[in-house]
Amino acid sequence: MKDISPEEANRALNEQAEKVEQKDLEKVLAKEQKIEDKFRNNESMSGYLAKAKSMFGLIRDYWNGNYRQVPWKTIAAVAGALLYVLMPLDLIPDFIPLAGFLDDASVIAACLALVSDDLVDYEKWKLQQDHDITQSDKETLS
């Protein structure tokens, strides 16, 4: 059984991202638990769970209008990669033991490589927001 090449992963990611529309963000968010379960339950993907949660946070904050300092290309790539994980029949179908999830992991890895700077910026912003909320709570209690 062959592994998916980085080129194939990038091609799959780009194809999926090109199809992403605003309504797909809602679909990704609605399927968050199901997608996270795939990360959690598959050894080849479990290492990406924390990043997947950050990717969901990025989409959620973009969807809600809280964070717009990111290009649509990044949002489309993240949503496309997460939607790809949901597809049971992709480059290597998920029902094939072990190998079936390698393409999903490869697409996620390709996405993370593509959007890493934007995701780091978002994570910094999110930490600052959490810090500001904590400070506000402390001031309210004083």
From TrEMBL:
Pfam families: DUF1232. The chain crosses the membrane at residues 70-89. Residues 1-21 are annotated as: Disordered. Keywords: Membrane, Transmembrane, Transmembrane helix. It is a multi-pass membrane protein. It is found in: Endomembrane system. It comes from the Bacteria. Residues 75-109 form the DUF1232 domain. Its main location: membrane. This is DUF1232 domain-containing protein. It comes from Salinimicrobium tongyeongense.
